[in-house]
Known about the structure:
single chain; mainly beta; 5-stranded mixed sheet; 54% strand
Amino acid sequence: MKNKLxxxxxxxxxxxxxxxxxxxxxxxxxxxxKDTSLPLMGAIIEVNIDSTKILGSATDEYGTYSIDxxxxxxxxxxxxYVGYKSISNSNIIFTAGKQVNLDVEMDAEIMELGQVVVTSxxxxxxxxxxxxxxxxxxxxxxxxxxxxxxxxxxxxxANFAGVQGADDSRNDIIIRGNTxxxxxxxxxxxxxxxxxxxAIPGTGGGPVTILNNKFLANSDFYTGAFPAxxxxxxxxxxxxxxxxxxxxxxxxxxQVGFLGxxxxxxxxxxxxxKASYLAMYRYSTxxxxxxxxxxxGTDAVPSYQDGAFRLQLPGRNGSVFSVFxxxxxxxxxxxxxxxxxxxxxTLIYGQxxxxxxxxxxxxxxxxxxxxxxxxxxxxxxxxxxxxxNVDSDHNYIYRHTDMQGDYVVDSLPPILNYTFRENKYSIHxxxxxxxxxxxxxxxxxxxxMSLAYIDSVRTIVVMENGNSLxxxxxxxxxxxxxxxxxxxxxxxxxxxxxxxxTAGITALYFxxxxxxxxxxxxxxxxxYKLSPIQTITFGAGLHSQIQTLYEYYYRPAEIDAxxxxxxxxxxxxxxxxxxxxxxxxxxxxxxxxxxxxQHLYNIPVDIKLSxxxxxxxxxxxxxxxxxxxxxxGVGRNFGLELTLxxxxxxxxxxxxxxxxxxxxxKGSDDIWRNTTxxxxxxxxxxxxxxxxxxxENVFSIGTKIxxxxxxxxxxxxxxxxxxxxxxxxxxxxxNTQQFRPYFRTDIKFNYRINADRVTHEFGLDLVNLLNTRNxxxxxxxxxxxxxxxxxxxxxxxxxxxxYYKIDF
Length: 808
């Protein structure tokens, strides 16, 4: 172990040459009007160094600006323009190795005769003015600032009120007790497939995200009652935007760490124009974990790589054309047959009776074009294509134990093979018009989907003289095409300086069957300012969603079905109502309280009397194998949420969120039960502090504590589990028992060194510092050494994550 630590120390470049005398860094960007996308000439940008020193600039006729010689460290940047809401951000970090790009879209403000109302958009408020409740913006800096996030935007979102993140192995976004399948993933205005490596079909998350905070811009996140432009989702929205590359200077970044090796390049495409490029690549196998002897929950070594790019090409009269793309491939193999002796270690991702191979691929490429419509609005079109594919095969292990207690493998017959492929071609066209006291946005989103599913399985037959394999059965064998269309219109009116009203209508049409048409889905929101520091908000709306596509085409293995069971399934629907109160205690501390009620209906449940409901699907590492389903299930979620947040100032920040809630459902047996995700409560406390040295280097420490209710399960049907060789619960008592509460403490250390036009950063994230044994699930292991086949599987133990990053 000593040699291993010595080699690790060698990997850390401690011999960093530090050159002082920095003159400062540059900030640059473009300022536009949000409703028209036109550049604003004469907008004032100020960098408040201290109470006696302010650096400033004004935008030119193209809306561009730049300010040089800004001192390193965190600075307050404000953008103001007469007749518009000013924007203030105290979290802009200036380092030696990278210039700061700050593009700004400004909202018009009401001006009444004899009175000028001056307001500003506060930190954390969503960028989309149509969203008035259950939404917040968060910066990519937050995914680096707080402990335990691993640079993963979905894991950072799990810290927000109403979101449950009590799962170390996955980044599923469970909002207010809803299935992760109900979340809309959107990138650059287009709905995208699950953006995670090792994405099991029908789930909403994964163990490692393809998204990366280094190429994403600030993004909006909604936990309910979201605006009309977001369709085909019942729980929440992750609305992601990619950032532009540096249009003034070539810059590079590299990072080496336990989770991967990353390279990023960005810069101008030409010296004369304002076009830019950004490209990124990451590769990881996690073999370093094995080398250091660190337990990661499996002997299998996940391998993955991903990348992203964006080209930004400004045109005439404020128009912009861009090309973007992200993609990733992943692969993992579980070689249980190579075990020499019975193994009692935790196996989070696989099963103990078979060898498994799993591979996934995701690719998204698109273009967007935005052009102003004189001074009254803008028109935008986004066109994209995506490809998602998964392949998996399982081999059953016939083996015995010899006289020395070692395993001997007799044979490895295949028992499962499947390939699921989904291609999608999308176009989103919209027009945004500026009104006298507000704005209106209308558009249409169209998705053409090409699907191919094939799956064959051999079941295990339990016999007195040993197990045998049944003949192959085909569970999926489908190729199809379908169209999903979502038109929408959303309007906002500033009735008075105190009252803003939003209203919208959307519809959803899915050509897969005649039952998937929702012609009228209203959305409404109100925002009323009781005082300059207090606001009451209300939102309500009807939302619908198609089913996970592969579930339509399932044919049970027990029969030779001529047709798939579930082709006629309709839409799942949800009615959201949210009431909120927001106040600011000081200029940098805000409090937000929300209460909500959500009614879900038309949820697919078993046509036979049972507890089954798709409301419990969407998480974990297994596909849902439904029987014949009908849209007769219901559910209800209600709760109370609190957020206390201090934005970064005076070298520290904190975030406390708490949720108490109830999430229940009824299957076809008409019995109210806890949903699997009904933890009932979740609390997060995060804190970060920076210490600045005389040479403008920064040492920071952050911590996170999470305490949440466990997931629900029930007594195990041991006879059925022995036949299926996996956990099967007694149907009548599903979700009547709860795992013990989840508790985890993380701590993170960072040290940032500013050299001559180079920034070095060292980071150490200690995940689950106290090595708490949190239960993940129950598994069935027929050859368990202690003779008990039903086992508790635990989540990750103590996990140190190290990285070194350089910007130049």
